[in-house]
């Protein structure tokens, strides 16, 4: 059976990345459907929160109140884990994330925001409800088994509980995780480094007679963490990857791992959820092969240290959504869709690099421990290093190459400006209400909003992309030719 589904784009995978991408496409006026292999939500322990640009992005899409309400349900225990800690010299420092278990000071010159406590399953449910409100179909129990792409469309073979069917769409996006079926079927190269470690994440119950200290702890066998939620544990050992990563994780296996790493007689009495992980670190060579694209873990995998995977994937979706919508709607300038790989591949490459660096200072050998001790001292003494790592972990230092415009803001994320960046459309804003600027922009008002810019230091006019990054800016009298070139570069020819 051939099912056209009346969808321009099919997204494979109904995790947070796939759902956000579907919402971005729908808000941009593109018909989209989501295929999900599972029929029920996966309850395996995953990311515990969102941070940096992801929190800001979702707030700009009108989800701030929902996130705050949901986060409040899951924040118990985090305060004691992440409350102000005392540094070696007696200074107080707020929790701004961690690097290889070394806590970062949120009170740096960049004012690194603390993470938002929001388990991945809770975020998935929140985004799922939002996508349903937008009218996007999410088809569970639909497993992709094959695909064929040509110059005009993609044909997807799907297995369902009631049989097989074929779906045709203009573009297919794999958001189906680290073992992505779409990536494998489409033939994306996925180079990287093999794993050296075996890790566990679990939510479990411990015998209170043998308590396990909270926080991060480095030992002669590896390291472990307990918290922020009571009973949430992580352990890492450097004895090679597991023999069978997919086998069920047993209570005895977790207990043995914690006893080895923690040098303790801890007793695990029950397991609510558990998963293995390794430091397998890989990245797709490109995020696009014709009409098939990848986002999130389908495009890059790495160990979970620093909580970067989910946030990197959400930013992939934000970057891709408006560009793919432009391609579908026919106004995308040449190269716009390829700029998705050009901009996001280096970002994930840096994430892979810093997770490998974290592994290097987690190892229990004397040389690695010496480097870890030095690194910890530098973090305490040098706020600049904290800024560098904190900004990198949360994606605060990203600057895209948006073109020849040299203003210091171009390519950077625009901090929240009330009334300016609250929707999914591009915005041209200026301080003076220039009639000349509005005349230039008249040919793009079907896809670009024109607004008055609030008083903003160092800028008199700017062109804001839907993902929150500045495509063009000036601090003087606007140059109509320069503005026109920027509009054409990012938002196509005038109507």
Which helices and strands appear, and what pairs or packs with what?
Blueprint: E1 2-3, E2 9-12, H1 16-27, E3 32-36, E4 49-50, H2 52-60, H3 64-74, H4 78-82, E5 85-86, E6 92-93, E7 95-99, E8 102-105, E9 116-117, H5 120-133, E10 138-140, E11 143-149, E12 154-160, E13 163-169, E14 171-174, H6 181-186, E15 192-193, E16 198-206, E17 215-218, E18 222-226, E19 232-237, H7 251-262, E20 268-277, E21 281-283, E22 288-289, E23 292-294, E24 300-301, H8 309-329, H9 339-362, H10 366-381, H11 383-394, E25 427-430, H12 435-441, E26 449-452, E27 461-464, E28 470-474, H13 480-491
Parallel strand pairs: 1-13, 2-3, 2-14, 3-10, 14-23, 25-26
Antiparallel strand pairs: 4-9, 5-6, 7-8, 11-12, 12-13, 15-21, 16-19, 16-20, 17-18, 18-19, 21-24, 22-23, 25-27, 27-28
Question: Could you give a quick summary of the protein structure above?
Answer:
The protein is of the alpha+beta class and 495 residues long. Helices cover 33% and strands 24% of the residues. Strands 10-3-2-14-23-22 form a six-stranded mixed β-sheet.
Distance between the termini: 39 Å
The count of helical stretches stands at 13
Total number of beta strands: 28
Q: How do the strands line up in the largest sheet?
A: 10-3-2-14-23-22
**What is the chains' assembly state?**
single chain
Main sheet makeup? 6 strands, mixed
Q: Give the proportion of residues in helices.
A: 25-40%
Nearest-integer average pLDDT: 88
Low-confidence stretches: 83-92
Strand content: 15-25%
Question: Over all CA atoms, what is the radius of gyration?
Answer: 24 Å
Structural class estimated from helices and strands: alpha+beta
Globally, the shape reads: globular
């Amino acid at each position: 059976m051939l099912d056209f589904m009346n969808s321009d784009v099919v997204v494979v995978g109904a995790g947070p990345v796939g759902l956000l991408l579907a919402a971005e496409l729908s808000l941009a006026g593109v018909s989209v459907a989501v295929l999900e292999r599972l029929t029920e939500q996966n309850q395996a322990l995953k990311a515990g929160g969102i941070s940096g640009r992801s929190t800001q992005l979702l707030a700009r899409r009108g989800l701030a109140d929902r996130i705050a309400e949901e986060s409040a349900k899951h924040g118990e225990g985090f305060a004691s884990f992440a409350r102000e800690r005392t540094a070696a010299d007696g200074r107080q420092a707020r929790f701004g994330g961690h690097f290889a278990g070394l806590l970062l000071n949120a009170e740096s010159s960049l004012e690194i925001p603390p993470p938002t406590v929001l388990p991945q399953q809770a975020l998935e449910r929140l985004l799922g409800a939002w996508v349903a409100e937008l009218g996007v179909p999410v088809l569970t129990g639909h497993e992709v088994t094959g695909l064929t792409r040509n110059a005009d469309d993609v044909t997807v073979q799907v297995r369902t509980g009631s049989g097989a069917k074929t779906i045709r769409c203009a573009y297919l996006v794999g958001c189906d995780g680290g073992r992505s079926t779409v990536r494998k079927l489409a033939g994306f190269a996925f180079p990287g480094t093999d794993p050296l470690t075996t890790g566990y994440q679990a939510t479990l119950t411990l015998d209170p007679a043998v308590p396990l200290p909270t926080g991060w702890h480095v030992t002669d066998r590896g390291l472990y963490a307990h918290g922020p939620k009571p009973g949430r544990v992580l352990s890492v050992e450097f004895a090679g990857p597991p023999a069978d990563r997919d086998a069920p994780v047993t209570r005895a296996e977790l207990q043995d791992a914690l006893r080895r790493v923690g040098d303790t007689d801890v007793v695990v009495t029950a397991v609510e959820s558990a998963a293995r992980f390794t430091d397998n670190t890989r990245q797709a060579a490109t995020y696009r092969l014709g009409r098939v694209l990848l986002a999130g873990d389908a495009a890059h995998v790495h160990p979970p240290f620093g909580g970067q995977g989910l946030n990197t994937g959400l930013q992939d979706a934000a970057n891709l959504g408006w560009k793919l919508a432009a391609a579908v709607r026919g106004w995308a300038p040449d190269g716009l869709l390829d700029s998705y790989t050009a901009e996001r591949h280096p970002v994930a490459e840096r994430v892979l690099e810093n997770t490998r660096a974290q592994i290097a200072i987690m190892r229990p050998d004397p040389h690695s421990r010496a480097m870890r001790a030095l690194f910890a001292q530098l973090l305490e003494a040098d706020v600049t290093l904290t800024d560098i790592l904190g900004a990198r972990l949360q994606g605060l230092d990203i600057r895209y190459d948006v073109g020849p415009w040299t203003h210091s803001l171009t390519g950077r994320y625009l901090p929240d400006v009330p009334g300016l960046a609250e929707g999914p459309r591009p915005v041209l804003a200026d301080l003076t209400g220039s009639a000349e600027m509005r005349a230039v922009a008249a040919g793009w008002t079907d896809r670009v909003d024109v607004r008055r810019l609030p008083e903003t230091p160092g800028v008199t006019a700017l062109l804001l992309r839907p993902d929150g990054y500045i495509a063009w800016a000036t601090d003087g009298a606007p140059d109509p030719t320069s503005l026109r070139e920027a509009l054409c570069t990012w938002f196509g020819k005038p109507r």
